[in-house]
Design goal:
Helices cover 28% and strands 30% of the residues. It is α+β, with helices and mostly antiparallel strands. A hairpin with a 2-residue loop joins strand 4 and strand 5. Keywords: Disulfide bond, Hydrolase, Protease, Protease inhibitor, Secreted, Serine protease inhibitor. It is found in: Secreted.
């Protein structure tokens, strides 16, 4: 019986190692940044398919990109109120969407508008 127990333990160990392979590579990955007129910048990494990265709203951002099929110029708008304070930010996205290279740059009148007009992609 000890022989059976050690053989079973070895088989279970091998099975556990075989099923816990590396995580799948993301289908899409971006470096996103916002820069204000003084030059202060913030940036995050966003990966989709599966959703991951240090973006504070990774699931919402990937969902917005999915609805726009990775086209930053077609991101859905969020229904949200923003002040009319003019404090422009330049938004940039560099990376790839399902293997296709993406480079996007635009200017929003403030951070709230960047969030609202990008479906949350630039909400950081």
């Amino acid at each position: 019986m000890p022989m059976f127990a050690s053989t079973s333990l070895a088989a279970c160990t091998v099975a556990a190692l075989c099923t816990g392979g590396p995580a799948p590579a993301p289908q899409s990955s971006f470096e996103l940044s916002l820069t204000d007129t003084r030059g202060a910048s913030s940036s995050v990494r966003l990966q989709c398919g599966p959703a991951q990265g240090n973006h504070p709203q990774v699931d919402a951002a990937c969902s917005a990109l999915e609805r726009a099929d990775g086209d930053f110029s077609r991101l859905p708008m969020k229904n949200q109120l923003c002040t009319m304070i003019h404090s422009p930010v330049e938004a940039q996205a560099r990376g790839h969407w399902h293997g296709e290279p993406v480079e996007f740059t635009t200017e929003y009148s403030n951070r709230c508008v960047a969030d609202a007009h990008s479906g949350g992609v630039f909400a950081f």
